[in-house]
Amino acid sequence: MFIDLNALAGPARYKLLTAAIVPRPIAWIVSRDARGATNVAPFSFFNLMSGDPPLICVGIGMRDGAPKDTARNIAERGEFTVNLVSTRLAARMNVTAVDFPAGVDESAEAGLVLSPSERIGVPRVMQSPVAFECRVHELLRIDGRSLVVADVVAMHVQDALVADRDHLYLDGPKMDLLARLHNPGWYSRPQPAFQMPQLNLAQWEALKQSGEAAGYLEQSFI
């Protein structure tokens, strides 16, 4: 099936792309406007783009033809926090996605505890297993939508999720992080993991020379 995305309307493109590119981690963003009013909202067009320098990217759409509060706040202050969502926080995250009237505090509606950050002036969600303090590196406007590239200047990890402090190992399964699937309202949680060691060139060449390359390609690590 060939699909020409340029021949489709926006909702159809969204439906196809969000069904195919899964799972997507959720950026539960806390932002503040220039007056200090706080906003909390989730976004699934989000991921890590670089480890060194530490960069994340978030795509934020529009509402009623105008930038969403989160996009406007980030543009005004240039900083925000990204809080990851564990499955036990799913309902609270879902409440913060409600289209509340202006002036409603989403964190209060969802029973969130906001804690001050260390390097920026925007708080984080204290219940979140992992939170990132972010400053805008670059803000792009594409057809009215905002593509935010941000520097991660600090992160917070709940102590119980640190498997080895000296080696900076985190307990991924214990985080039980939520990810977005297709619409409407489908999510996933971590499945049993598998390990597949990265091959170097010498190892791959050795597999080819021994005649084992074809067998390697057909094996399943799951």
TrEMBL record:
Residues 19-176 form the Flavin reductase like domain. InterPro entries: Flavin_Rdtase-like_dom, Split_barrel_FMN-bd. The keyword Flavoprotein applies. GO terms for molecular function: FMN binding; oxidoreductase activity, acting on the CH-NH group of donors, NAD or NADP as acceptor. The keyword Membrane does not apply. It holds the Pfam family Flavin_Reduct. Its cofactor is FMN. Keywords: Flavoprotein, FMN. Transmembrane segments: none annotated. Belongs to the flavoredoxin family. This is Flavin reductase like domain-containing protein. The lineage of its organism: Bacteria, Pseudomonadati, Pseudomonadota, Betaproteobacteria, Burkholderiales.
